[in-house]
Amino acid sequence: MPSLNRVQLIGRLGKDPESRSTPTGKKVAHFSLAVSQRWKSGEGDKEYTEWVNVEAWERLGEVCQQYLHKGSLVFVEGRLKTDKYEDKGGETKYYTKVVAVSMQMLDKKADEEPVATIEEAPAEYEA
Description:
- This protein has one helix spanning 58-67; strands at residues 7-13, 18-21, 27-41, 44-57, 73-86, 92-105.
- By secondary structure, it is mainly beta.
């Protein structure tokens, strides 16, 4: 039976990407992505933010390190990967991250019009 492991996210970086090299010389960049959801309820406007750890390897990681910074709006596509480690007490801990295979910068350039957001959409398009 076929399987699929694909994630698509749009969000803002929580901090500047951090890069390192593996012992074999491969470069990898790590950053956290804030993916927010907003809605209206009887109690007013609500917002929930999910924080996702992302890693980008080799050339993609170099591009992320060079061009992305805290607050950058990006589209990331990749796959989920769960790693494990043992904490100081010997207990096994698991954490899931997204291994990026592509990234698109969504911030507007200084001379461009701003990107439309849901709040700016015409009323007939609001969900």
